[in-house]
User: Fold this.
Amino acid sequence: MKVIQLQDDFGINHLQLAEKPKPSASTGEVLVKLEAVSLNYVDLLVVKGLLNPNLSLPYIPVADGAGVVEQVGEGVTAFQVGDSVVTTFIPDWFDGKPTAHATDYITRQGLGVVSGQLAEYKCFTTNQLIHSPTNLSALEASTLPIATAWNALQYANLQAGETVLLHGTGGVSIFALQFAKAQGAKVIITSSSNDKLKRAQQLGADFSIDYKTTSDWEAVVRQVTDGNGADVVVETVGGKNFQRSLNAVRIGGHISVVGLLDGFEARIDILSLLHQQVTIRGMEVGSKADFEAMNRAIVARHIHPAIDAKFTLEQARAAFEYLEQSQHFGKIVITF
Ligand SMILES: NC(=O)c1ccc[n+]([C@@H]2O[C@H](COP(=O)([O-])OP(=O)(O)OC[C@H]3O[C@@H](n4cnc5c(N)ncnc54)[C@H](OP(=O)(O)O)[C@@H]3O)[C@@H](O)[C@H]2O)c1
Assistant:
């Protein structure tokens, strides 16, 4: 079978096609014919060696994938041959509050310890898989595991008629746009590209702001929310953006901190945090129960992920370059 792996060094240029023997399911395992993977920003950090510089090579990256069960090992009852499945990102967090044990980093697929999904076939333990939403193709389902957007809105208790602020048009923000609109909320979205803002409007965005040309976009957010600010902010950027999100959220509002596109550190004015009485919640994907709830909503609301670009396995480097250059709107997938 074909795999794409970081051969002997980090970097997109070191992603190489290789041949490996097709695996077979042992007791308690499920063999899946993977049909698609989707790329996340974290995959880029892995490939560049920025997330885990000590991972041992060769290594098969990419956290999220979907496919069809081809064989079930002895003792497996949760899955059957032919089932459409998608991978889980925090496989031991089943429900309830996160614990250190349930969210142990070493269990994450594609982040440097457990291998990722850029392989035609892979054996999984049953906690590493979930059934795909019935209305989605494998291509679409592969975009779901790290789609923290669902939880970013759920944990903020977003209500119909409230306003959510989304930064940029990457995977998380566009999922958040789709979920927020399905819940009857208003969406303010920012982007560096007018073309992407138009696409966001087509998906239902109510207000759009070019963050490159609008120096005080916080003021615009206040203006379009009757001076109040957004009820919920999905903070995908971090860094200097974090304080700006605090300036743009309403008193008593909620910031779901999801990402760090502008860096791992942020300085904030504590006084503005006190004055705004904001709830700040860090997010890490979610539990299996959260994933299932999101999937039920996807089926019930007929939501289809916004897939911007498709690449083949042989074009894996080009897919990562596309991600690195932030050319995408929504998700990038690689099909097998
Ligand atoms: N905590 C979690 O569970 C979790 C889950 C998923 C992702 N994440 C993190 O969340 C972040 C976003 O993930 P993603 O998958 O959506 O990434 P992505 O698809 O790579 O998003 C890239 C887009 O973000 C926008 N952006 C970049 N810098 C910006 C800025 N200064 N202001 C506003 N927008 C900016 C750009 O949009 P435009 O091109 O429109 O300008 C860019 O195209 C990443 O840091 C990722 O690691 C965390």
Summary: Residues 229 and 250 are 4 Å apart (CA to CA). The pocket of NAP is lined by residues 40-42, 146, 148, 167-173, 190-193, 196, 211, 236-237, 241, 258-262, 283-285, 323, 326 (CB under 6 Å). The mean pLDDT is 96.
